[in-house]
Structure formats: structure tokens, C-alpha cells
């Protein structure tokens, strides 16, 4: 079985891996690359738990072939914090915006992309941006508040 | 059998690879349908042809006559970010951006939406209403086809073996023209359309002078509803004209009962959406 | 004010340092960075993959299974069928908690018959997932396809296909697998006294718990001893059930609780663990198994669909005098629907002298139900609270006033047995009545949209049960607490709050861990709204024992009597001047001298806790209806709940908000849809429509703290009762908007439009 060789960048670091043509990015992240922060909740792009960034845009890694990563920039939850947590991560902790936590990496990746694009989103905009990230624990209330509060903090800090 | 993945840089290479794979080839654009179908065992491609490295398929171009050429592999989000397209064709852009989540909008393409062959694809009724054509290229050359002629039935297309949809062509706009797309879904996001309705029209001093209506998810393929357009043309989009157009939409429906909606529901809602969509398009076109 | 606009702030209600504070959960950083290890994230050297072959038929006798081709397939390391699982004969019940091992052994793998489409028939372990899946296709199963029955009403008919010949009702083979009855007074006499009697029938569809993490496990067997990493609501349940089903003694099984990605009751039983264990034993390799989302929907427990009838009688002045309810619940393929929750909780919020509540447990060819948040209670409350709304209207009373007039309080005798101690139900109604949500007028109809408001109340039993804890003081004066309950929603934070409070030390000095089955004593499930309640009791007693030791150590250092030492603000101090003059000793100072003063400091406690007492809630909901499309959107939602004491208010609010959101899904969009072939037609998050973030408004929670007199911190269970009122609250709001009552869930757009069109004709 000939595997494909893929050279890519993950969280700013060059990375190479071998994969099957039909293998999803999610499978490669969670398997050979050991980046299990992206979760498989559905495998069909309906829950957002596997959200990563591809050249800065959020995508469901279950709906992307690993082979498509060739020459691209991938971002995962493992790359979100520097020496300190990202303000969204910190706010999620302070606001109890997670319960079981399985949706949290995907929600954070999506929320970060939103705030990079729109630093002052309305509640409506946050809710529709995050509509592809299912959460069954929180009823979304604390998640939406945490994203909006972080946006306000980040605007104030600028 | 091992699956092949190829990402050609030119259209000719893509067509060669696709033709060589014969029936086992699959085009990968956004992948948001293909990967789900592969996972569910509905398709098992021998060769996956990724068309996102081909310039012509991933670019948007405003033509000299004021029309647009949209590469089949452009994502909904890139459509939305185009400075001019949203102004001229807001209905097409909003339809393409209703497909799936934010994550999916960054990937899903109008070409994929059309070639998936689902009667419920959101961008298709809007493209039909817009009188869009597609440029198709295959081993025997290029041809153009009206969007509404592409689907043959659920999951089936009027394409010859080896043909690839290259781009969508949106015609130039007369003054006072605009379009809109509305769909009915049970939730606010993340559902497949139970009914989708695209309306494109031209208004002149409060009178509708041209119109096209596309309906999705109410028949085996997306419908161009000419009777509904006729009811709108020449009217001031008054209640009587809208009711007549709505009735024409309901009459055109040949829906099924399924987990997403009933025959009675789809038939009624097609009319309700026509009225609402026409009014939004007219408002955008400069008002009644 | 707290983060939720209208929430009262328990932290201002007392002078506690940590209890009632919104501390940061101990497991939080791992969860926001992707480092937390859930079951599917675990790997082992040499690990192989297990896959399940499932029945395509909803009902079929299994005549033979030939696994030889699969076994011969390259890469396959083991194949198993029901033959490899301990058989519990159908004539003798073996109970583990509420689960009967007769049913469990048949649920994890079909034995005599496949009882639903998706029922496991065999399993394969192979070097890759792909090979395992391919090998499953090579297993040849000869089925004798049998007639099937899906719906509860059909299954109760005399000529329905029978699932189990051994189940008899009134001496005849039947799908009615059990009944339950609660009686109080005499309903005949009661209804005779009533001025108004209203009787209605209701239907609900099965809904899934919808946890985002599919079931997953990794099992290694070495030298006959098994180690299980899995996602469950109870590692001790996993151990006990695997012991039963594999024949291994419990000491040869170590069940390690992975982080769990949601359960809501659905992970209080096992599916994959015994299969992976058997495959691991046969193959000699660690075996990992995960379900796809499709498998989760097809084969793990939803909660029951139902058909119920509720009849209420009241006098003109608004006093309920009689209540009768019949609740028929789908159990799925094997007995065990939550009729106790439906029939027991239905009338529990009210002081009604004459009650007759009856439940039927009905099997049909669907996946076996599993617990779901207040199992059965939302079904019971749905009917009762809708009829309460109609009754209030008939009596021309405000619906909250009507509830208040009939509300159960201390001393009320409930039909399901207890005489209530101090409870806070009345307070939930009173708070709702005066809350700005209820006193603000609804928007007027505009742009063709209609608006409505509904209210409903609910009750859940709550639970105590077995819990164990160990509190150890480290050499540097920090503290480690170990409990035995998987933490799904922040319970480690609550445990840390309590420990820090009692010891009088900084919260950050307390670490809280969930012990596996070989580390900590038996602890019952994370379920029944019991974890914070029960673990608080054992943690409190363990910590108090530690304080006794700390006083003894200080006494030893000071060479005085331990009774002359008190523990205050995290320090040992002489009890008074007579005790002698000594500088206080901190926890750190005492810990540093532990070896010299008698050895390590630490203590545990194990209890079968009692006194949980019921939880009550009242919800208010505003909806907007688009009558031309039949779409209902919730615009505003406020939940009022007596929680006893909120140990960590954020996670209490989170439970209330999460429950309300699940209720909104149940009421409006979630349902199991079966096709004519008896197969589930919507096994995906695309078509099983759980609310997404843009579907919901902010969900306000008003926490009321009427302390439970039987608990050291006053805690009442919190997690389940929030799912009890929403179905009726939303239903009543839709009625208020449209003037049409709906007696069937979900209130999906086609159903709303069909009902409206019927009214127009």
C-alpha cells in the first residue's frame, strides 16, 4: 500500500506525515500526529468538535482529506495557547463556559477565528458563527457570553 | 483497492485524470458532501481529483459586459468576501452561504452543490433564478449549459463521462435588478432545506419587468417555475400577483414525504417563501 | 450580579470563603488546551481496533453465525459473538442497580434474536479499523426475519408481534413487560367532588441524550487481568457489569474513568467495554473501540417515546381534588423504561388528596432505552403541566397562582410515598410570579409573527447512595482529594470548594482527582443528581477526620491535650488562654512535621448516603411563532429552581441552562424517526435536530437556596429537574400564541401547520 507523503505546517512548525488518499485530516491529527485535541463527534461535519484552521479559515477536519494539507498551514487547539492561555481560553475557565469539555476545543478554534475577523461581534453574530459547534451541556449561554466578554476585553486592551 | 489522490494544477490534467479513472473518479472541491458519502460507504472512489489547485476553478472574474464568471471550486465564504458580487447578486451569495456551518462555508462550493445532484442544494435555486449557466469541459471539449438543465434526478446529472463543471456564468444586470434566496429549515442553521426559493427580478418604477423563480427541495430536481415568474412580470407585486405566483409555485411542487417535511407542508411553504423572497428581491432592486 | 443577568448571587448570601464561589475548575486548563484525555484519545503500544457487526433487521431469529472467513482475513486478531458472553438465563433476574443482567447480556450482543436494527451480532478486532470493518462484512449470519413493531401503542395491541415469549401480561405473552402503580386516596370520590374535570392524551417521541462524545473504550488484558479506560458515568458500574458479562472476578478488572464527553444518563450502562475486553483476551492485544455517531443513534439508549393520558379534577375555587395518569413508555427491545420517573414524578409537585398514577413498560423493536436526565419525569410532567394550564384557563386563574394554590409543601403526602420535609417549590412559583420576565408584557403580534408565554413546574426525586472519598495532606501542606465519581459538569470544582472551606485553606491548594476502581472505594454512578450531594457528604466527613488529626498533631507538638486545640482559618490554635500560649500552626507547618508526629495525615469516608430529598423547579418561557411556516422560536426563558445550596453557582446555572436547552430540543425539534422497514431514518446530527447556538436565547436561571436540612451544606440535587418543566412550558406558550393546543411532541413545523390548517378548515 503506497502511502502519500505530505509536507505541511501545523501550528507554525513544519510537519511531514504519511497517509492514505482517503484518510481525513482528523484521523491523521488524532492518530499518527497524536494531536487529540480535535475530537470526533460525528465525522460528518455536523458538530464542529474537530474544528481546525486551514490557512486561517475554520474547517471541520473530518471533512478534509489529509492529503489536502500539502503545502498548507494548519492550526489546532494545541497551538492556541502560548506561554499563557489565549484570552478566550482564560475567559472560558473563569466563566464556566464548558461542562464536559468535549466541544470546547472546536468552539475555541471557531471563536478565535471569529474575533480575528470581527473584534466586536453582536450576540446574533456570535450565535450564527458558532452554529456549527454543537454543545449539549451548556445551552450555549455561558459560551456566548464568554466570547463576547473576551471580545470586549481584547478591544479594551488594544 | 488503493485510492489515488491527485491535485492537478491545470484543467487539462484534471480532465485527463478524471477521464482515466472512468466511473471510479470523483471530483473533490470543498469535500463537504464527498467525504460524508465516502464515510457512509455511499461512494468508494478509485481516484479523487482535487480541483482546488486550478486557477480557473478558484477565481471570480467580473466580465467586461458586467457579468460574473465564478470558478466552480470557489467557496461560499470567498463569494461573500468579493467586493462586487454581493452587491450585484446578493441572492446567489446568501444562498451559497446558507450551506452548512461557518466551517462548511469556508469549503463548500457552488460547483459541488450543483454536482451533488440534491434537489435541496441551497445555491442551485438561486443560480437558476439568476439565469446562470455553467461552463463544462470534458475530453470532447467545452460547452455551456443552463444550470437548471444540469440535474437529471437526485444524485444524477446531465453530464457526459469525464466532464467537469468549470465555472458559473452570471449574466449582466439590467438597472433595477436584484435577487434573493430564502429557505425553510426547522432550526436556524445546520439543516438541509425543506423548501428553498430563489427569485431574481427587475423593477421599473414599481413594476416588475422581468423575473425568474427557482424552487428547491420540492421535486426530484430544482425547478425553474416559469408560471410564477409570469404572474410577477407586469405586476406591482401586489397581493393578488404574489398570491398567483405563490399558487403557481405550490402547483409546480412534486414533493415527497420524508423525515424533513411532508408533501402538504412543502407545497404550502413553497408559496409562502415565494411571496417573501420576491418582496426581498424587489426591495433590493429599488423598491416596489 | 452574576454572569446570568437575573441570577441571585449565592456568594453574597453567606460569609463563606469558597462555598458558593465561582472558582476555576481543577480540570479546566487541560480542557481548554485540548490536553484532557477522553476515552477515544487513549492509546497503547500494540493496540488493535474492534468493530461491531450489527443486525440490519429490526426483528430476526439468529439461526447461525459463521465467522470463519472473518477469522481467516489477514490482520484479524479475534472475532466474538454472544457465545463468548456469560449467558444470564431469562427466568432468573440478576440486578445491578436498576439494570437486569438478563437484559444487559442480550443488549450488548444479540443472543437468540436480533431485537432492533443496529443490535450487535458479532465483533472483530483487527490491526486497523478498516480491516476490522472489512472483516465484519465477511461474517455470515443466517437470519429468520420476523414481523416487528416500533410504536408503543401498536406494541400494546393484542395482535402485535411479540418480542419475548417469556414476558407475560395477564397470563398471556405480551410486550407489556411491567407496570407500576401509585395510589393515594380514592380518585373516584375525588373526581365526584370536582367542578371541572379535564382529560387529555399526549404523545412524545424518543429523544437521544445527544452527548457529543460517542462511546469509546480501550481495554488491555494482561496475565488474565483487565484494565479498562472508558467513557462512562461510573467506573464501578463498568467494572461490575464487565465482571458479570465476562465471568472475571472484580479484582481482576481495573476500570479507569477517562474524561467523559457528556452522558446525561446515557453512559450509565455499557455497550463496548465487555466486547473489547473479550476481544483483548482472545487476541492478547489491547483493543480500542469507538462508536460512530450513527452507531450511537442506532444502538445506544435514547429515552422512551410515550403515550399518556392525564385527567385532573378541581373545584371552582381552584383546588385540585383528584388526578389520574396512565403513562405508557417504550422500553426499546428489552424491559426497563423509566415508568417510575413518569408515574412517580408526574403529580409530585402538588398537594392532591386523590391520585392514581399508572405506568406501563412496553418493549418494541427499537434500541433499549437508557437513562436520560430525570428519566421519565419530563414525560409525566408534560401531560400533567399541559392539563394544569388548561385547568387554570377553565377556572379563569393565573397559571402560576393556580399552581401556588395547589403546591406541595412541608408535610404534603406525595402519591409516590414520601411526606415532604422542608422543600422550596412554593418559592420557585413566588419568584417566577414577581420576576420581571413574568411581569413584562409579551410583544404584540407584528410582521405576521405571534407571541405566547407559558409556564410549567416539575419535580425530580434526586438520589443519595454510595460514595467514597479520601483526603490526604501532602508533605508541603497542600491537599489531594480523591472521589469515585466521573466529573461531567464541574463536580471537581465543587469538591475543591468544600474541602478548602472546611480546612480554611486556599482553594488552589486543593487538588481533586477521580480515582479508578482500584484506588478508591465503591462509588455509585454519576447520575440521579447525586454527585455533589453525596460526594459533599463523604468529603466533609473525611475532611473533618483530617482536622481531628491536625489538632492531635498540634497538640503533640505543643504537648497539650487535643481537646485544647481548635482549628480555625486553616490553623491550629490553642482553644483559649488556659490551653497555653502558642503561635498558631498552619496546615503547612503541621504537614512538615507529620513524620515526627505520627506519620502521614489523611482520612477517608465511605457512606451509603440518604436524605437527598426532591428538587423542584418552575420555568417561564416566551415564544415567537411564524404561523405561515409553523416555526416556533424561544425568545426568552427563565428557570427558577430550589437548589438547597449552590456550592459552585456557575456549574449550578450551567446544569439549569443545559437542561432547559435539552427541553427546548425535545419540545420542538428532536425525535427518532423510523422508516417503514423499522429502521431509524435520522441517525445523524444533521437530521436529529438538537438546538444549535443560533436557535436559543440566553437562558436565565434564578437560583433559590432553601437548604436541605439533611445535608451538611444544605445541598439538593440540581442536574435533572431542569429538564422536567420545559416540554409543557413551551407547549403552553405555543398555545398562548396560537390559541391551539398541541398534544404531541415535537411541535415540528409540519405538525404546527397541519394543526393550524385543520383549525382553519
Quick structural gist:
The complex is a heterotrimer of chains A (158), B (288) and C (761). Chain A is α+β, with helices and mostly antiparallel strands and 158 residues long. Chain A has 5 helices and 5 strands.
Question: Secondary-structure blueprint of this entry?
Answer:
The complex is a heterotrimer of chains A (158), B (288) and C (761).
Chain A: E1 4-10, E2 13-19, H1 25-30, E3 51-54, E4 57-60, E5 73-75, H2 87-94, H3 104-117, H4 123-129, H5 141-156
Parallel strand pairs in A: 1-5
Antiparallel strand pairs in A: 1-2, 3-4, 3-5
Helix pairs in contact in A: 2-5
Chain B: E1 4-6, H1 11-20, E2 25-28, H2 34-39, E3 47-50, E4 60-62, E5 68-71, H3 76-81, H4 85-88, H5 90-96, H6 102-105, H7 110-115, H8 123-129, E6 133-138, E7 141-146, E8 151-153, E9 156-157, E10 164-170, E11 177-184, E12 195-204, E13 207-216, E14 223-224, H9 226-232, H10 239-252, H11 263-284
Parallel strand pairs in B: 1-3, 2-3
Antiparallel strand pairs in B: 4-5, 5-10, 6-7, 6-10, 8-9, 11-12, 12-13, 13-14
Chain C: H1 28-33, E1 48-54, E2 60-66, H2 68-72, E3 76-81, E4 95-96, E5 99-100, H3 101-108, E6 113-114, E7 120-126, H4 129-137, E8 140-145, H5 152-155, E9 168-169, E10 172-173, E11 176-184, H6 187-193, E12 196-204, E13 216-222, E14 225-230, H7 235-246, E15 253-257, H8 273-283, E16 287-290, H9 293-299, E17 306-314, E18 320-332, H10 339-345, E19 355-363, H11 377-394, H12 399-406, H13 425-434, H14 436-439, E20 450-460, E21 465-473, E22 479-483, H15 491-503, E23 510-514, H16 531-558, E24 565-568, E25 571-574, E26 585-586, H17 587-592, E27 601-609, E28 615-626, E29 631-642, H18 649-668, E30 699-704, H19 726-738, H20 749-760
Parallel strand pairs in C: 1-16, 14-15, 18-19, 22-23, 29-30
Antiparallel strand pairs in C: 1-7, 2-6, 2-8, 3-7, 4-5, 9-10, 11-19, 12-17, 13-14, 13-16, 17-18, 20-28, 21-22, 21-27, 24-25, 25-26, 28-29
